[in-house]
Amino acid sequence: MFGCECLCWESESEFYFSQPQPFSLPANLPEWPQGQGFATGRICLGELEVLKVSKFESIWSCNLMHGKTNKGLTFYKPVGIPDGFFCLGHYCQPNDQPLRGYVLVARNATSSPKEEVGYAHEPVLDLPALKEPLNYTLIWSTDTEHIGCGYFWLPNPPLGYKAMGVVVTDKPEEPKLEEVRCVRVDLTESCEIGDLILTTDSKFSKYPFQVWNTRPCKRGMLARGVSVGTFYCSTYLDSEEELEISCLKNLDSTLHAMPNLNQIDALIKHYGPTVFFHPDEVYLPSSVQWFFKNGALLYQDGNEKGESIDYRGSNLPSGGKNDGAFWIDLPSKDDARDHLKNGNLESAELYVHVKPAMGGTFTDIVMWVFCPFNGPATIKVGLMSIAMSKIGQHVGDWEHFTLRVSNFTGELWSVFFSQHSGGEWVDAFNLEFIEGNKPIVYSSKCGHASYPHPGTYLQGSSKLGIGVRNDAARSKFIVDSSTRYQIIAAEYLNDEIIKEPCWLQYMREWGPAIVYDLRAELEKLIDLLPLFVRFSVENIIFELFPTELYGEEGPTGPKEKVNWKGDEIC
To answer: Which InterPro entries match (predicted)?
Structure first.
């Protein structure tokens, strides 16, 4: 997000700084296997057909001065729109990153919606799907008295229609009505603001101004909202109010643009990341079958004796919910216990869940990593790092990362890196690649959180320098997910195509509840600190450390995680 210390607007002819250049992946895309509507360039949403436009003409740029640092934000209109398709709104992005965005353009679907298999939506009366706005409302301008400034216009839709985005001009005259189209309300979904891209204060204009990107309010594999790629701007925003623009809605229940099984395999072989574990990692991953075969036990509440688990997990309780009645644990004998804790890299594989995202315009390829044991945390206080003996450790660690692929082209768009209770989306242009278009994923020492680059990441307060260390680095310990994977679920495909493994239906805990005196553990840490900092950080330490480190409950499997059906949590 940019905040302005000094702001000026520049027309196209007055740019004196370089504009973003288009980004492309390191290698060319392959020819994907044939089938359905995946990677055909266009997607039918029911009554509307949309395609993605990523060629733009710059309209206006906000030049932001941060001391000696010169940054900018440019607003664009899509160009090269094919005949019959219509613009829905304009696009913007910061100038310090490659030009990678898109906007969707739309037209009426060529075939009758009622003839489409899977389309069960009755049109509203006989209103057309797309209509010109009635007029425009000026949202904000940098200077209303002089030509050479930016003007931001909200289309005012006819009754029963919604605007999809904002229009930007460099002149005070209202845009032409044919500049954009509004969409019939039953073909839309509500959207919300995402990342704040720009904020200015009132010294540059009569009113302050903010710009955000947008996303559908409801996200996840069952949601049907489709992001248009436009932005939202306002001089104020009431969090209780609905935005004056919307996103599209996919009314094609067949999700024909999702990849079939052959295309999924091709995507994984082309994009499957290489996972690097830390060179000092002791608790490596394994396959689930290896874990079961080598002594993992199933316990039931009220029964002190554990039961051996079939290598397929067929004797695990199936379905239901995590009610605390069952859990998995390591064998009691030290040698067998330590053997399981250390994992088995040779057997390790990635467990893949494929699901729709953004209303079926993207595919999320979620890759789950299983480690039999999560090691204890290392606490960092200033320059000191202290390895704990218990805090953070637990049996059965499930971590994941997610590849988001465009269903228009099959292009890798971004990767989500899961990090304990949250994580981060990283655009493709900020990834490291090891071979062709295969990204690198770094798994942190002991905790197995995923990161896009090597380094030390602090889970806590970076400002105070207090928190849990997450160390990530390259090593000889790797798993190549492009070859070592198993597709365990893709609900949008026929159940006969992908048979889910027995162990995936186990909804209880993959490790026992661990109860220990947390305060006593942290007090041991505090006693190791120099006297002059001990008392000043004591309260901070007890407040900062996230609860999952305390290991009070055993972790659950993939299907019990919120992101199995929902979107990733950042």
So the answer is: Vps62
pLDDT of residue 518: 64
Distance CA 13, CA 566 (A): 45
User: Cβ distance 276 to 475 under 8 Å?
Assistant: yes
DSSP code of 97?
A: S
Q: Is 181 exposed, middle or buried (0-12, 13-18, 19+ CB in 10 A)?
A: buried
Q: What is the rounded (10 degree) CA torsion for 200, 205, 208, 209?
A: -70
Give the span between the Cα atoms of 156 and 139, in whole angstroms. Answer: 12
pLDDT band at residue 13 using 50, 70 and 90 as cut-offs? very low
Does residue 542 or residue 275 have the better pLDDT?
A: 275
**Residues 232 and 215: beta-carbon distance below 8 Å:** no
Strand 438-443 and strand 274-277: the pairing is parallel
Separation in Å, CA 245 to CA 9, 105, 213, 233 = 25, 15, 12, 10
pLDDT of residue 382: 76
Contact of 182 with 131, CB cutoff 8 Å: yes
**pLDDT tens figures, 360-402:** 999 999 999 999 999 988 888 777 777 777 777 889 999 999 9
Provide the mean pLDDT of the chain: 88
Question: Percent of the chain, pLDDT > 90?
Answer: 68
> What is the Cα 377 distance to its own chain's centre?
26
Contacts of 13 (CB under 8 A, 6+ apart): none
Maximum distance among all Cα pairs of the chain, rounded to whole angstroms: 82
Q: Is the pLDDT of residue 241 over 70?
A: yes
69-78 and 91-94 strand pairing: antiparallel
Task: Give the separation between CA 100 and CA 23, rounded to whole angstroms.
Answer: 6
Q: How far apart are CA 211 and CA 401, in angstroms?
A: 29
The rounded distance, in Å, linking the Cα atoms of 208 and 263 is: 48
422-457 pLDDT per residue, tens: 899 999 999 999 999 999 999 999 999 999 999 999
Residues in the chain: 570
What confidence score (pLDDT) does residue 495 get? 73
Which amino acid, 240?
A: E
241, burial (CB in 10 Å: exposed 0-12, middle 13-18, buried 19+): exposed
**CB pairs under 8 A, 24+ apart, for 313-319?**
313/288, 313/501, 313/502, 313/503, 313/506, 314/502, 316/502, 316/503, 316/505, 316/506, 317/506, 317/507, 317/508, 318/502, 318/505, 318/506, 319/505, 319/507
- Distance separating alpha carbons of residues 118 and 129, to the nearest angstrom: 19
Q: At what angle do helices 531-544 and 518-527 cross, to 10 degrees?
A: 150
Say how far apart CA 295 and CA 343 lie, in whole Å: 12
pLDDT beyond 80 at 121: no
Instruction: Note whether 371 and 278 are within 8 A (CB).
Output: no
How far apart are alpha carbons 357 and 405 in whole angstroms?
9
